[in-house]
User: Fold this.
Amino acid sequence: MGAGMTDANPQATTLSGRLTALANPTRFLALADRLVPWLGGIALVVLAVGLYLAFAAPEDYQQGSTVRIMYIHVPFAWLSMFCYSLMAASALGTLVWKHPLADVALKSAAPIGAAFTALALLTGSIWGKPMWGTWWVWDARLTSVFVLFLMYLGIIALTRAMDDPGRSARAAAILTLVGFINIPIIKFSVDWWNTLHQPASVFRLDGPTIHASLLWPLLICALGFTLLFLTLHLMAMRAEIWRRRVIAMQRLSARKAERAAR
Amino acid sequence: MLALFLRETRLGVRAGSGALTGVLFFLAVVAVIPFGVGPDLNLLSRIGPAILWIGALLASLLGLERLFQADREDGSLDLLLIADGRHMTALTVFVKCLAHWAVNVLPLVVVTPLLGLFMNVEPLGIAAATATLAVGTPAITFIGAVGAALAVALPRGGLLVSVLVLPLTIPVLIFGVAAARGAVADPDPFLPPFLILAALMLFFAVIGPLAAALALRWSGD
Assistant:
């Protein structure tokens, strides 16, 4: 699985042994080929069940039907953070263990994470229009997610700016880790900034807890979207490995052609 | 290390106009704002500290990509990296940041009171804005060093450095402006955000050079 592979854990000898075995791209490709259909299938089934339950769930007494946006919005927001944590773990894998797949994992996770963050912002905005009467509020949480989105875009820009995959991998890893250290600071400062400028609680989730009838569909949806994310991530990693192989082969054939011409 | 500081300072002053361009940019940004929001002096005095901070933030990003690039072009960066055994690379980066700050960013802090007058900020507010800028801008330079080190091998890294660095400077901006405003607006406190700003500066003084040194060592091969 995508997460298990990047969360390298030195204590578990069997796990680290398996991780070392996965450093061979061919072996990883074989595993990914086997996993992707299953993961994708399970993700689709779980998502179908979750979305069905979401539409079957009772409506909120205040928000009416719009509360159903929550069932996709919250998983998106959760995945935007999950993906960044996964990238930070991959960055550690690149810098500390020099695992060749960690850099592939980081590079291919960034666009997916950016897409999920954008979706979280978009669905939140669509949800916010009927609820708060505006598309955007400079609320602390919205602002920090927006900053997270900017950081995703910065990492993508950096990985795309360099030709040499090894060099871009290390640069992206350092940037990801620096960003990861900074995220709590940004969150804290944005909270401070917001409470300083605005009277408290423009909005809040309805009450401290959600009723179980709403919570279960939400959890199932979150699980489904996480599985979907892992599937997409595996596919992106597979594509990235293939892309590097194609580039290597092109270089090789160009060199051969040059030698033949001489 | 002192020799390195002097060398950097001398190079920065002699390469010339870098600091002056930064000040000019700062001046231009601050001068453009009233045209955008209108010449209402009350409004300007209210948003004045924020404008000064944003202008200084943007202006201090200007020269960042030259922080390591000039040294890389003439090869002295490799020498500094090879000397890792005698002088820790992170310390070298730290000194370079200090020199860069003294040459390129300190002038911005110096002209802040003048620009504050343009913005009709009251004297106490001007003093607070200058003090917060003096404490906060080193943090921007230290974060910027990471971006500069990451983009050092890129031919056109300047814009990328700004894009990478700006999201990370948001906490500095928030607490800088909060402290500068806290000195003027009555219910808001001045000291807590100012102390947090100082803490952020010290924190980035450690994180920034370490990460930049790591990035430089791996970009060099």
Notes: Chain B touches chain A through 28 residues (CB under 8 Å). The mean pLDDT of chain B is 84.
